[in-house]
TrEMBL record:
<dbReference type="GO" id="GO:0005524">
    <property type="term" value="F:ATP binding"/>
</dbReference>
<feature type="binding site">
    <location>
        <position position="310"/>
    </location>
    <ligand>
        <name>Mn(2+)</name>
    </ligand>
</feature>
<dbReference type="GO" id="GO:0046872">
    <property type="term" value="F:metal ion binding"/>
</dbReference>
<feature type="binding site">
    <location>
        <position position="138"/>
    </location>
    <ligand>
        <name>ATP</name>
    </ligand>
</feature>
<keyword id="KW-0547">Nucleotide-binding</keyword>
<feature type="binding site">
    <location>
        <begin position="221"/>
        <end position="224"/>
    </location>
    <ligand>
        <name>ATP</name>
    </ligand>
</feature>
<dbReference type="GO" id="GO:0016773">
    <property type="term" value="F:phosphotransferase activity, alcohol group as acceptor"/>
</dbReference>
<feature type="active site">
    <location>
        <position position="290"/>
    </location>
</feature>
<feature type="binding site">
    <location>
        <position position="138"/>
    </location>
    <ligand>
        <name>Mn(2+)</name>
    </ligand>
</feature>
<feature type="binding site">
    <location>
        <position position="117"/>
    </location>
    <ligand>
        <name>ATP</name>
    </ligand>
</feature>
<comment type="similarity">
    <text>Belongs to the FAM20 family.</text>
</comment>
<protein>
    <submittedName>
        <fullName>Family with sequence similarity 20 member C, like</fullName>
    </submittedName>
</protein>
<dbReference type="Pfam" id="PF06702">
    <property type="entry name" value="Fam20C"/>
</dbReference>
<keyword id="KW-0464">Manganese</keyword>
<feature type="binding site">
    <location>
        <position position="310"/>
    </location>
    <ligand>
        <name>ATP</name>
    </ligand>
</feature>
<dbReference type="GO" id="GO:0005794">
    <property type="term" value="C:Golgi apparatus"/>
</dbReference>
<keyword id="KW-0333">Golgi apparatus</keyword>
Length: 414
């Protein structure tokens, strides 16, 4: 069911207009994307692009689809996840350069590549409250859950991510071509095979990643097309944190900060602001404080969607919410109408966000080991969703008291 009036047991009472409002973002592009994907299927399978790339590169490199302002990982997400799980043979693995924590690039025989993030923290373990956000662990289940949440919200702007249980020896140590990585493997006192790689944080014997004794949980994320094929631009977030223990960022001290941002390209025209607010809502729901940059496809300038990458520091704490993540929404008071409608839908008892997420995550292969999000994390999603809707309501009330029209909702339905 796509709108609140529909019943699982009775006939639909939805009008076509109701259904239009409650369809996912990018709904009007579903047929277009499918038409683009199907003719390319056999070609891509025989070309140097793998089917793993197909899911995220076919739509973005077609101007018609990208100019819709929405993500285009539509009908093929489950196919990508299935392929990542079943195409189990790796050609080789190397450590991913850059970044602060251990991650690998896994290459498949069909030229596909996936970003590998190993399990470093138990699902029910909360981040230490004394840690700064920039010192937090990156969690494999956070990457998986972020992909599912992104789809539930109707964004579809995170490349497909799937959980997997890997053999540390057979699928990493024996196939790695990275000598520096290979030198970091060892066997723990209790017989578990471990490795730690080289990185800025947590790459030492004290913070090694260990199998049980060889089995290791990890997330695999489809790699975006090579930059030579689809150039991307990295943008510094205007609401980036200071990454300092003592300094505040400008947005934390300037009450009229949003006015400054909206006068500056690319936020001064188009949908960049509401695109960014979508990302802010995603980050608040999963308590991700580490959003310092975001990416877009270069070819289409400001007429494209944001790519929601790198979500490993999400879902660290369920007992505490971080209201500062919502600062852009609080300060700018602007949100897509379709996003607002989707959030309202997910706040209803019959479509509760926690229930939808629980059902969605149950399809991931690692669910058979243990639920990817603990119940306290799922409950936190509902609590935070209520906070987002209350923030929008305050914005609407404030504008109403000022005597203005409802400029809070950006109408992207008409």
């Amino acid at each position: 069911p796509l709108c609140p009036q529909e019943s699982a047991t009775g006939p639909s009472k939805c009008t076509p207009q109701d259904k239009q409002q409650f369809l996912p973002l990018g709904h009007h592009n579903t047929e277009l994307c499918t038409e683009l994907i199907e003719p390319c299927y056999s070609l891509v399978m025989t070309h140097i692009f793998s089917l793993l790339h197909l899911c995220v590169c076919v739509c973005p490199i077609n101007g018609q689809c990208v100019r819709s302002q929405h993500g285009c990982v539509v009908r093929v997400c489950s196919l990508c996840a299935l392929l990542l799980w079943k195409h189990s043979q790796y050609c080789f693995s190397v450590q991913k350069s850059g970044g602060t924590q251990l991650k690998l690039v896994m290459s498949f025989p069909n030229y596909g590549q996936a970003m590998f993030k190993p399990m470093k923290q138990e699902r029910d373990e909360e981040t230490n409250s004394d840690l700064y956000y920039f010192s937090d662990f990156e969690r494999h289940n956070a990457e998986i859950a972020a992909f599912h949440l992104d789809r539930v919200l109707g964004y579809r702007r995170i490349p497909p991510v799937v959980g997997r249980l890997v053999d540390v020896v057979k699928e990493i140590k024996d196939v790695t071509t990275d000598r520096k990585l290979a030198r970091t493997f060892f066997t723990s006192p209790v017989g578990n095979v471990c490795f730690y790689g080289q990185c800025s944080y947590y790459c030492s014997t004290e913070h090694a990643v260990c199998g049980r004794p060889r089995d290791l949980e990890a997330s695999l994320a489809v790699m975006l097309p090579d930059l030579s094929l689809a150039v991307r631009r990295s943008w510094r977030s205007p609401w980036r944190r200071s990454y300092s223990r003592s300094k505040l960022a400008k947005w934390e001290s300037e009450p009229d900060y949003c006015s400054t941002v909206t006068k500056t390209p690319p936020f001064n025209k188009g949908t960049r602001l509401v695109d960014f607010i979508d990302l802010v809502i995603l980050d608040f729901l999963m308590s991700n404080m580490d959003r310092h940059h975001y990416e877009t496809f270069e070819k289409f300038g400001n007429n494209t969607f944001l790519v929601h990458l790198d979500n490993g520091r999400a879902f660290g704490r369920h007992s505490k919410d971080e209201p500062s993540i919502l600062a852009p929404l609080e300060q700018c008071c602007r949100i897509r109408r379709t996003t607002w409608l989707r959030l309202r839908l997910l706040s209803l008892p019959q479509y509760r966000l926690s229930d939808v997420m629980r059902a969605s995550l149950s399809h991931d292969p690692l669910h058979s080991v243990a639920p990817l999000l603990s119940e306290p994390h799922l409950a936190a999603l509902d609590r935070r969703l209520k906070t987002v809707l209350e923030t929008v309501s305050r914005c609407q009330k404030r504008q109403s008291e000022d005597g203005g029209d409802d400029g809070v909702l950006y109408d992207d339905i008409a």
